[in-house]
Amino acid sequence: MAGKVDLSVCGRVCLLGEHSDWAGGYRRTHAKILPGRCIVTGTDQTLEATAWEHPNKLILTTTRDNGEVVGPWECDFRDEELLRVAKGGGFWSYAAGVAYQVKTYYPVNGLVVENHTTTLPMKKGLSSSAAYCVLIARAFSKVYDLRMPPRAEMEMAYLGEILTPSRCGRMDQCCAFGRVPTLMFFDGDLLQTEKIDPPKEPIFLVIVDLCAAKDTMEILSCLNKAYPVASNEIEEGVQKLLGEVNEKIVKEAAEVISQGDAKRLGELMTYAQEQFDKFAIPACPSQLTAPKLHATLTHPSIQPLVWGGKGVGSQGDGCAQFVARSEEAQGEV
User: Fold this and answer.
1) Is residue 322 located within the same domain as residue 252?
2) Contact 32, 193 (CB under 8 A)
3) Which tens digits make up the pLDDT trace of 270-313?
């Protein structure tokens, strides 16, 4: 046993290819659906925690991004109790789901996790829930010397989160890789990852908190109605967006990132947003019309400073991302 261990997990931002992870997952039963692909990277914002062993309980304390401390919360470290909490939903369900999965595959006892510092915003498209799931998986790994590589942490985090009412795809847990640009492929249950070569020239990104709200579960529920078989023109459009349209954009984007071509990356982001609006808004207008997002993306004062931009994560009024024209412009935005 390792005694007390310190942990840090960053958030993730999906540069391009949002929603294609779960869409590609439908290939397990419907091979005509195209594989998903996306480009992700870690953020500067993190969850920081200390963890140690407990003989028979899961005990958690968390600090929200506004400084509010929640907990301690605890439950017995028994299969039926962990599964009950996970399926019941709510904030602690994520940790309970991950704990259940780790307990299933590894010889572990209970765990105490104190998440004492959080700079990662919640419900802003930066995968705060997935980061928390990875944090719990990593805590078990470090405390019990399980030596999980990042892919194993990702798997435990994903399997834990899908025990909850959340219906995430496999993209979000890439925060386990840290701040590394990564190309991800989703083909049914097969997940493949490929590191993107560092840009030859720096690319300056800006993430903007829109200080609004969105309902990710509602967005996922609406878009999932298009799968596995589209029943109308709107649903056909969603499949086209997350299939052939997305594939073309992400392929080119991976190349321009390694080349350090910020201008072209910004143009691709703007084009991706246009396509997303065209095909996805009709499927979920209540969340994806996103007036604050679109007002921010098109604000006249920003245009001279950026090459382009788009929504973040599941989209909606959570965050926006821009490719700045220079380091100085990044600071001005």
Assistant:
1) yes
2) no
3) 999 999 999 999 999 999 999 999 999 999 999 999 999 999 88
List all residues 6 or more positions away from 70 whose beta carbon is below 8 Å from its beta carbon: 61, 62, 63, 64, 91
Is residue 307 within 8 A of residue 263, CB to CB? The reply is: yes
Residue 327's domain comprises 204-332
Residues 168 and 250 in one domain: no
Query: Which tokens hold the place of 317?
Result: 């009024």
Both 190 and 221 in one domain: the answer is no
Q: Which helix (H) or strand (E) holds 308?
A: strand 306-311
The whole model's pTM is what? Answer: 0.83
Whether 179 and 213 share a structural domain: no
Tokens of 115: 């998440």
Q: What are phi and psi of 159, to 5 degrees?
A: -65, -35
pLDDT tens, 206-218?
Answer: 988 888 888 888 9
**Sign of the alpha-carbon torsion through 124, 148, 168, 196:** positive
